[in-house]
Structure formats: C-alpha cells, structure tokens
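Figure 2 data, in text form.
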Amino acid sequence: MSPKNRSPRLVAVGSPLPLPCGVTLPNRLAKAAMSEQLGQIDGAPSQTLTRLYSAWGRGGAGLLITGNVMIDRRAYVEPRNVTLEDDRHLEAVRNWARAGSREGAVMVMQINHPGRVAVGPLHRRPVGPSALRPQVIGYNLRKPRALSISDIADLRSRYARTAELAMAAGFAGVQVHAAHGYLLSQFLSPLANQRTDQYGGSPQNRRRLLLEVVADVREAVGPNAILSVKLNSADFQHRGLEENESLDVALALESAGIDLLEISGGNYEAPAMTGVVQDSTREREAYFLRYARELRARSGMPLMLTGGIRTLDFMNEVLAQSAVDVIGLGRPFAVRPDLAAELLAGTWDSRELPCAPRIPGRGLDPVNSYLQLAWHAANFRGIAAGEKRLRGPGAVRTLAAAGATMTVRALTQF
C-alpha cells in the first residue's frame, strides 16, 4: 500500500493489524526483544525462559519478539543465549513457542549473529565483514577475522536453517536482526565494512548480504509466515550508516517483501537504543520517530517503533497519524509483565510507563545502561516465578549486585 492510498483513520493501541503475509496481530502493542540470557549452557531454552514467556503471553501484548536466538553456537551475543542451528532442542523450542502464544499473542523469533562483537566462546576468534576491531573496551580485545565468500554462503544457509526450525517449532515467523552493530549491521556500515568485493564499497554492495539473507529466510519460512527485520535508522557514528542510506535500505527491504520493519538505532560504540546518545533525531518521547515519519512518507510497509516511548497518549497519537503501525516496548515489560493488558483495559493508573532505576547522580550513561540490563535480567527470573509487579531499587548496592551477577555469568558461560 502506498502512502498516498492510506486512508486517514483513528488507530488505537487495541486495533488489530493484518500483516502482508496474512497473519493478524490482535493489537498494536509489541514486547520488543530484550536479552533474557535464560538459555541453558547447551543452547536449549530453559524452563525459566518458557515460564517467562507464558507470563508475557498472558500479559496482553499482541506481538512477542524473543531476545537473540543464535544461528551458530560458535558465536554468542551474550551468555546463555538460546541457539537453534539443528533440531536437537526442538521440543524445548516448541514448548517455548506454545507458552507465549497460548493466550493469542503472536510469537516471533529474533535470529542473529554477533559478528565482531561476539562475547564467546572466548577461545574463538570473532568474525566480521573486515578484520577491524570495534572501538569498545572489552570487545576490542580480539581482532576479528574477515569472512570469506564461502563463510558468507555458510552464514546465509544458517539464517535460513534457523528460520526453518523456528517455523517447525510453531513460531509465527522470525525477525532478522540487522541493527545494533551485530553482523548484518556491520555489513551495512561503511565504518565496519571495508571490503572490496561484491559485499563492500558501494551502498548497494554493503546491503547485499542483508537482502540475500531476507530472500533465503523468506524461501525457508514461506509466504504465510511473518518476516520482520530490525534496522538501524542510523549508527550515530562518524562514517557509520547514516539516515539517508538507511532509508534506502528500508525501501529495498519493502521491495523484498518483508512484513514488518522495526526501527531502532545505535550500536555498542554509540548505544542510541538505550537512550545514552543524545542525538538530534529525538522527538519528544520516541528516539527514532523523525526517521519513521520520513520513511512513512515514502513507504506503506508496516512499521514498528521501539525506544523511549513512555505514555499511552503518545502511542495513540502516532498510531492515529499513521506514522507507525506497531508500538514496541521493552524495558517496561521487565517491570510489569501485564502492562499491555492494563493499557488496553484503561486501568493503567500512571501517566508514564514503568522504567528501571538509575544510579543516583548519574545520567543514562553506559555504566547505568549495563547495570539496568543486569537488573532486567534479574527481574526476568522474578516474572518467571510468578511475580506481577517488580519494584525498581534505587540503591547503588542493589544495581551493582545485579551487574556483578551478570558479569560472573559471562565469565563462567563458556
């Protein structure tokens, strides 16, 4: 549907959304991907992860997007990521899909490869489009190996295989992660990708792998499954992916026939997705709304906006304007698993959505961001255990304890 053919209408968060593939989302609220880190050491989903999604499935969101699921056990984004590269854990993955979708939510699996920012296994050398270290302390300790053409062919088959297995397990579709400085995002970036072959140089070459992966995944999942992509509006780095080029990538993805584009931004070196980067694209609540509006003027593709959204009034406003079609919320669901149900029922009794605590006296800097992620991970276990309302601690000691736990798990994972 072209932008000119979109009829003006009042869209509320409770309205259903039919996607091009034929799947209908029961409402416009999505639980965006967060890193649960609740896989088992062998890569299988744990029972805790399954119980967590059972709670979120009862929580009212129309769309549940999982955290990172790895396409290759030789490269993890974080400790305890679920890995799905063959059928050895397929029954556990089926239980996961059933748990989230039992009450009518649509379950989509986010599939990913970290590329040069892999945290482990620590004895392996990470890979990337080029042999260039990321400029982030910790992630720059190992110089990545540049992927060969045969390596790229293997990666393409892995994305397709993981997507095929997700469908076999009962997921409604997959989301290809091409944002936040992970592998496909690295290929899009002229800063990380300095190849001179058909996968580097021009914007068309740098987006080639993403479009090939999308084509491979569509073939694997079929025309009636959700194929989503998560894309950076920009990397917010000098010489990184810029907004104008990102818009061209988005339009190419629309031509490739994806069903839903989630708009995000930033990476490990400039984490705009966490609110750390104070950039000129921020408008009121949402971090990436200006980009969404520019894309909407050129595209009728269903759009999902995630990041910094804090009020129900704002959600309904941008939906009514047709700026976007789905509202993605992440961290608020780590505090109130049934938040969507309260928003839809009109019983949410606060103007702003819940959020995580911060270290007193500090802004939302990388230290706070890391500790908040650790705090969320601790909350996920509470939600899985049946807690309904998690209170955000304000004490430095409590946040630091969560961060220490996350760090120990990272060091003992592999």
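Caption note: Residues 3-356 form a domain with the TIM Barrel fold (CATH 3.20.20.70).
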